[in-house]
């Protein structure tokens, strides 16, 4: 074999290391030195699931003579962790993706600056969970039991209506849930049971689920794509999102008349996840960051979110896509648990749940 | 053919400043001075000094483990001595790494590059010297012809016979025309017939090139037939150095004698000058001074005589019994027991019948046959081990 | 080799490790422990006192040991077959065996589900054959699934590391032993095992560390009842924000890895000896008798089935439409379709982060190429130092450090990058260089492990012969040693390539969203509901498999040049 290629390797290594030592052209540092005329760069830290239309971002960039750079940092927990750990030298200007289960924790770390966006006035009070407006609500979604409509029709079985129904013998062996320690919808469902049955009653409910042969898996994709009967599994009830039925229609292979799945919404069976964004302390682009937050609350962005991230806009004036209107139900009432209660109880609930359900 | 002598490499760097002509007068060729080397607690070389003149072939003769190969590695620059110097034309080579010394070394196991064919092996040194491809091509062809391997250039070295591998290794070492060629037991792995033939070829090649060379071997025949000068090594030291015939006729120590196959070493004591008392009786030893020592009785200097034949002047006789006999072509190798001492002799085979158990009478010329090593102790101490 | 030149060889690799491993790791550990009231000691004590942690540690150790043993049991016969015999389709078998190694865990989990899940092909077949109501095979969410996935992933390590070494052992040794009256069993016990010991030890160590730090397999196939240390670290760090405890667990994991590598280094120093290795052409035979043909055929067939069945199930799934049933047109029969592949090329929602499959392939290949070059450039000097310096103190101390990145929690290190590499001139937090750098940390020990034994086994005599013929040490390395160890170089390159292609955990945390690798693109698809998304994920997984197998085949072919028989 030809070994001549080894010489260039060493040069390449040297070059790489030298390049590594140059500041990357896209780091926030550049924005400090850029001239007022040139486009400024706004760094937005967010999680894996963030998505947005190209056109929507382009509109913002043109309007404000700016460039928006997104930095994704794993799941929501990892993203917040990174922001906390880098608070002395923030990774970006804005963080999007703190939900109400992490809200208290994020606020306690004191990494956000308050911003009273004028558009907050349009947002219902139930979403504005931080009275100092350090974290601004952007979207919400419900985590609910979903079921495979065809399965229940085939069996001539009525689908469950409430959480209590899931304990009934006719639903034995039909439910698959996620491990709350490793999955965000899994945690949401655990919190649903806590909210409904109280901190002293939820374990009893789970014992009932266990007796009714509930299947626990670690991730949403395992539950939904491997165990849920719609996608090749054997369980017709799965914990998923309220927006999953419209997603099933949108991402169907052949156009569908109706959604193949439906959501159990009765008796506060859903947990409402609200996602927030905030300006990170130490941001060099405060003005641009404010403009971005306003933009996220504006109709243009709010109406883009449903089909990108399958969440609902917090701004009630935003129009929902047709599929959402036709195939999803927004529950009247959801499980209620304040961010403070969640922050205080979370670890103990998780531990007790693990002891009860997994061992 | 190879007219040009000592191809000088265009090497730069350490040792590049050597000026051959300026130093030539003092110590031409290789000179090594007081080399010491040990591996862990084992002493490999204990103060070795020697010199090789340009065009000279020096054989280093010694049993395995005496330090011969280590010596070559130090000269080549593959090992660093703890003490002592290696000089070429008077220039110390301490700072010159192996690849800039311009020496050749042919390894005992040949060390042919297994991933290259014959041509690539022989061309390697030339390519390292930066010879243009056309010249390399010509020189390899020349070298292969010299070592009698024409038409073999494209052969895979792993498919060659022992003799062919040996020639490739020799060719590879010779091709860059090293100023000094070192051969480490080059014929060791070959069968006897092949060895003898190759020995003659090797000698012819070295003579034709007037190659300065060091030839390391444990075989005295190889050493004697090839070398201008022989250095005998024992346990990391050179114990005798000289022309082959001098060493053969006058082994300097009982060790050398025994290594050369002369095993008849008998303890003796000189009480009156000129006569030594041994287990064989009193033997005439002209010039010997009082003291103890070992007597060497050369095996090739005895003559079988009839018991009743008259004793010639200045000689003495031994009576004994033939214990064993083995036929060696022109001679018999005979083991004779005299007064309880077993001695070995080479007796002319012509007209003689050798039969074990037969009484014999041997007549010996003390001047030719006896050598006295005053002060030497028991024959066992001269053991090869 | 002199201490000075040895130190010189170690310099660049150590600098790399210091900058991109020890510095970030030290920073994050320090920062984490600073948040604990009791400091590092307090956090460690808390960890060691916890029953859950002790259980996780114990489970981590024994499942890794068991997985390693099983991997050896599957891999060694395969290594023998590949090492000693020449047969058609060998390089294909080799390439196929390395495909699992690069697949991201969600894909492997999907493959196992497609084959052995409740409604997998196997269960469906059995249910229709035996007229069963419920699936007979309960495979996923079991220990068996974890073990099978570990074997599936890591057998290629044994095949490559042991097989390559085995293929160059001189078969005359076995002939000599046979002539001396050694039976087949005795030859195996007295000759094969001791001679192979260094390679087996090296492979076992790598496999063990991979199993020891297993994360995705445990989460996705083992289910919630199983937790390794790595899983516990992830949960503590990102779910519960208990950074001190996560740091303590990372430290425990590191200490385990370090003890293991120290033991290994001592052991391998004693096990390895210079051998005169022979070119493959002399060590490998064709399958002549029908007996050997049958045995080899069965063995190769078994390996093939083991490696291809899950992959084939996945590939089949990528072209099979199992349409979600709707109330109007039911039942929709499964049919063959290329829709998923077609859909990959469409940015239906006009998303900013959409990439075409071609772009994702190009990005993955680019990162992989950079990783291969970087890992070889760093690994070669180290392998050389290890081979030439032998048991020098410098080697003894530094060698065990090399494997540490393999035994480090990806979450911890990922956070460390953010904390440490945050200021110019090393503000790499959003740099596209970060993925290849992180991949190199993992790939580099593989390169060293592939190269060092090979370099060590090149007879020193050959290097001396080259030196005497006028070759400088550098020339000797280039002209003599590298060509002779060419195979091992390719093995190292193939490892580095595969690791980079398949890496997911670290890449997800550090890669720029505009430059997603194939695994990241797969993961994005898997996180959305809808059968079209799932189908696309399967299609992209099939593409990843094809690209990987093709690249490994190409790397294997590279060696056809001069002196290709090694």
Summarize the structure.
The complex is a heterotrimer of chains A (359), B (385) and C (566). By secondary structure, chain A is α/β, with parallel strands linked by helices. Chain A is built from 14 helices and 11 strands.
Can you characterise this structure?
Chain A is 40% helix and 17% strand. In chain A, helix 3 links the parallel strand 1 and strand 2 (66-72). Chain A is an alpha/beta fold and 359 residues long. Chain A has 2 domains: 27-140 and 273-320, Periplasmic binding protein-like II (D-Maltodextrin-Binding Protein, domain 2, 3-Layer(aba) Sandwich); 141-272 and 324-358, Periplasmic binding protein-like II (D-Maltodextrin-Binding Protein, domain 2, 3-Layer(aba) Sandwich). In chain A, helix 7 crosses helix 8, helix 7 crosses helix 14 and helix 8 runs parallel beside helix 14 (339-358). Chain A contains 14 helices and 11 strands. Residues 1-35 of chain A have low confidence and may be disordered. Chain B has 385 residues and is an alpha+beta fold. Helix content of chain B is 24%, strand content 32%. Chain B has 10 helices and 20 strands. Chain B has helices at residues 20-23, 68-76, 118-128, 133-146, 162-174, 192-209, 220-226, 244-249, 254-259, 366-369, and strands at residues 30-39, 42-52, 57-61, 83-88, 91-92, 103-106, 180-184, 213-217, 229-234, 237-242, 265-270, 275-278, 281-284, 291-297, 302-305, 316-327, 331-338, 341-348, 359-364, 370-374. In chain B, helix 3 crosses helix 4 (133-146), helix 3 packs parallel to helix 5 and helix 4 packs across helix 5. Chain B is elongated, with a radius of gyration of 25 Å. Chain C has a single domain, classed as MetI-like (MetI-like fold, Orthogonal Bundle). Chain C has helices spanning 3-34, 39-49, 51-84, 90-102, 105-116, 121-130, 143-166, 172-179, 184-212, 216-222, 229-239, 243-271, 280-283, 290-318, 339-344, 357-389, 393-402, 410-420, 434-457, 460-468, 473-484, 486-502, 505-510, 518-526, 531-557; strands at 85-86, 285-286, 320-321, 335-336. In chain C, the strands form 2 sheets. Chain C has a two-stranded parallel ribbon. In chain C, helix 1 (3-34) packs across helix 18, helix 7 (143-166) packs across helix 10 and helix 12 (243-271) crosses helix 17 (393-402). The radius of gyration of chain C is 24 Å and the shape is globular. Residues 324-332 and 560-566 of chain C have low confidence and may be disordered. Chains in contact: A-C, B-C. At the A-C interface, helix 1, helix 3, strand 2, helix 4 and helix 6 of A face helix 1, helix 5, helix 11, helix 16 and helix 18 of C.
């Amino acid at each position: 074999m030809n070994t001549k290629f080894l010489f260039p390797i060493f040069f390449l290594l040297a070059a790489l290391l030298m390049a590594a030592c140059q500041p990357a052209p896209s780091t926030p540092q550049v924005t400090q030195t850029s001239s007022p005329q040139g486009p400024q760069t706004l760094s937005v830290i967010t999680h894996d699931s963030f998505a947005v239309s190209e056109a929507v971002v382009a509109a913002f960039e043109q309007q404000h003579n700016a460039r928006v750079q997104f930095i994704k940092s794993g799941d929501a927990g990892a993203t917040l962790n990174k922001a906390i750990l880098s608070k002395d030298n923030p990774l970006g200007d804005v963080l999007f993706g703190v939900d109400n289960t992490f809200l208290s924790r994020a606020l306690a770390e004191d990494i956000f600056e308050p911003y009273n966006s004028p558009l907050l006035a349009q947002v219902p009070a139930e979403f504005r969970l931080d009275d100092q407006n350090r974290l601004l609500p952007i979207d919400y979604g419900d985590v609910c039991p979903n079921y495979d409509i065809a399965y229940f029709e085939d069996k001539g079985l009525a689908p469950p209506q409430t959480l209590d129904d899931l304990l009934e013998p006719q639903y034995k062996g039909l439910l698959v849930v996620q491990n709350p320690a490793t999955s965000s919808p899994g945690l949401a469902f655990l919190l649903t049971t806590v909210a409904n049955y109280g901190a002293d009653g939820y374990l009893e409910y789970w014992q009932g689920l266990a007796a009714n042969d509930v299947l626990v898996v670690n991730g949403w994709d395992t539950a939904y794509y491997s165990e849920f009967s719609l996608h090749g599994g054997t369980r017709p009830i799965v914990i998923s999102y309220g927006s999953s039925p419209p997603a099933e229609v949108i991402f169907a292979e052949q156009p569908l008349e109706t959604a193949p799945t439906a959501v159990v919404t009765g008796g506060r069976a859903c947990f409402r996840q609200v996602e927030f964004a905030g300006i990170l302390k130490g941001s060099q682009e405060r003005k641009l960051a404010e403009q971005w937050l306003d933009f996220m609350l504006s109709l243009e962005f709010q109406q883009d979110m449903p089909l990108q991230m399958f969440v609902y806009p917090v701004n009630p004036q935003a129009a929902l896509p047709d599929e959402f209107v036709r195939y999803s139900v927004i529950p009247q009432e959801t499980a209620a648990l304040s961010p403070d209660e969640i922050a205080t109880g979370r670890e103990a609930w998780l531990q007790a749940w693990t002891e009860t359900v997994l061992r | 053919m190879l007219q040009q002598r000592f191809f000088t490499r265009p090497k730069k760097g350490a040792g590049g400043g050597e000026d051959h002509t300026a130093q030539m007068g003092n110590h031409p060729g290789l000179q090594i001075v007081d080399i010491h080397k040990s591996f862990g607690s084992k002493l490999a070389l204990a103060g070795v000094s020697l010199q090789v003149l340009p065009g000279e072939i020096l054989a280093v003769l010694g049993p395995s483990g005496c330090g011969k190969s280590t010596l070559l590695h130090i000269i080549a620059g593959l090992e660093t001595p703890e003490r002592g110097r290696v000089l070429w034309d008077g220039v110390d080579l301490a700072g010159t790494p192996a690849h800039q010394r311009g020496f050749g070394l042919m390894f005992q196991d040949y060390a042919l590059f297994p991933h290259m064919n014959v041509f690539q092996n022989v061309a390697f040194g030339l390519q390292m010297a930066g010879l243009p491809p056309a010249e390399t091509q010509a020189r390899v062809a020349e070298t292969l012809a010299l070592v009698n391997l024409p038409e073999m250039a494209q052969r895979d070295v792993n498919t060659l016979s022992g003799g062919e591998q040996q020639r490739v290794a020799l060719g590879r070492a010779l091709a860059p025309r090293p100023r000094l060629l070192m051969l480490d037991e080059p014929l060791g792995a070959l069968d006897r017939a092949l060895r003898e033939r190759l020995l003659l070829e090797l000698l012819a090649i070295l003579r034709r090139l007037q190659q300065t060379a060091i030839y390391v071997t444990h075989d005295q025949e190889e050493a004697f037939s090839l070398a201008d000068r022989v250095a005998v090594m024992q346990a990391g030291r050179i114990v005798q150095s000289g022309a082959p015939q001098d060493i053969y006729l006058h082994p300097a120590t009982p060790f050398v004698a025994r290594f050369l196959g002369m095993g008849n070493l008998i303890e003796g004591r000189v009480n009156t000058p000129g006569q030594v008392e041994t287990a064989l009786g009193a033997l005439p030893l002209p010039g010997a001074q009082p003291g103890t020592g070992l007597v060497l009785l050369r095996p090739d200097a005895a003559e079988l005589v009839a018991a009743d034949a008259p004793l010639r002047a200045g000689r003495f006789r031994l009576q004994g019994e033939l214990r064993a006999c083995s036929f060696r072509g022109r001679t018999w190798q005979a083991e004779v027991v005299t007064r309880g001492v077993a001695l070995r002799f080479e007796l002319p085979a012509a007209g003689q019948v050798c039969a074990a158990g037969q009484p014999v009478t041997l007549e010996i010329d003390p001047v030719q046959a006896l050598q006295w090593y005053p002060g030497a102790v028991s024959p066992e101490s001269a053991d090869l081990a | 080799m002199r201490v000075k030149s040895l130190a010189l060889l170690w310099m660049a690799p150590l600098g790399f490790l210091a900058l991109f491993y020890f510095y970030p790791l030290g920073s994050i550990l320090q920062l984490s422990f600073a948040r604990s009231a009791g400091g590092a000691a307090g956090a460690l004590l808390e960890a060691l006192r916890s029953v859950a942690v002790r259980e996780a540690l114990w489970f981590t150790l024994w499942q890794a040991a068991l997985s390693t043993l099983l991997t050896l049991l599957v891999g060694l016969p395969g290594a023998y077959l590949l090492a000693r015999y020449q047969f058609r389709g060998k390089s294909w078998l080799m390439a196929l065996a390395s495909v699992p190694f690069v697949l991201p865990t969600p894909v492997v989990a999907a493959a196992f589900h497609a084959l052995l899940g409740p409604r997998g092909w196997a269960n469906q077949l059995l249910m229709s054959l035996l007229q069963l109501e419920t699936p007979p095979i309960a495979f996923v969410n079991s220990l068996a699934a974890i073990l099978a996935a570990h074997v599936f992933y890591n057998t290629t390590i044994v095949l490559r590391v042991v097989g390559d070494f085995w293929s160059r052992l001189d078969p005359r040794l076995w002939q000599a032993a046979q002539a001396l009256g050694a039976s087949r069993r005795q030859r195996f016990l007295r000759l094969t095992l001791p001679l192979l010991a260094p390679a087996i030890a090296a492979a076992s160590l790598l496999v063990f560390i991979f199993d020891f730090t297993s994360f995705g397999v445990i989460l996705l196939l083992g289910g919630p009842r199983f937790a390794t240390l790595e899983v516990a670290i992830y949960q503590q760090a990102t779910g519960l924000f208990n950074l001190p405890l996560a740091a303590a667990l990372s430290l425990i994991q590191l200490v385990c890895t370090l003890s293991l590598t120290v033991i290994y280094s001592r052991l391998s120093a004693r096990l390895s000896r210079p051998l005169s290795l022979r070119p493959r052409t002399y060590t490998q035979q064709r399958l002549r008798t029908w007996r050997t043909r049958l045995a080899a055929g069965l063995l190769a067939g078994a390996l093939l089935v083991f490696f291809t069945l899950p992959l084939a199930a996945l590939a089949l799934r990528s072209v099979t439409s199992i349409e979600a049933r709707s109330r109007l047109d039911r039942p929709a029969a499964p049919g063959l379709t290329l829709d998923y592949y077609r859909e990959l090329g469409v940015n239906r929602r006009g998303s900013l982060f959409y990439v075409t499959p071609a772009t994702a392939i190009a990005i993955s290949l680019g990162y992989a190429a950079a990783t291969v070059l970087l890992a070889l450039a760093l690994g070669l000097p180290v392998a050389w130092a290890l081979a030439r310096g032998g048991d020098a103190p410098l080697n003894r101390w530094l060698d065990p450090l090399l494997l540490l990145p393999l035994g480090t929690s990806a979450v911890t290190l990922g956070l460390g990058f953010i904390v440490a590499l945050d200021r110019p001139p090393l503000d790499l937090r959003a740099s596209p260089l970060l993925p290849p750098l992180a991949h190199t940390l993992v790939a580099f020990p593989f390169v060293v492990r592939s190269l060092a034994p090979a370099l060590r086994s090149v007879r020193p005599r050959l290097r001396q012969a080259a030196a005497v013929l006028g070759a400088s040490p550098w020339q000797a390395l280039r002209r003599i040693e590298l060509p002779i160890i060419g195979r091992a170089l390719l093995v190292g390159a193939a490892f580095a390539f595969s690791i980079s292609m398949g890496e997911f955990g670290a890449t997800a945390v550090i890669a720029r969203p505009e430059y997603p690798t194939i695994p990241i693109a797969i993961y994005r698809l898997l996180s959305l509901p809808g059968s079209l998304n799932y189908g696309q994920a399967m299609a992209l997984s099939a593409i990843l498999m094809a690209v990987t197998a093709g690249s490994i085949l190409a790397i294997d072919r590279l060696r056809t040049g001069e002196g290709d028989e090694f």
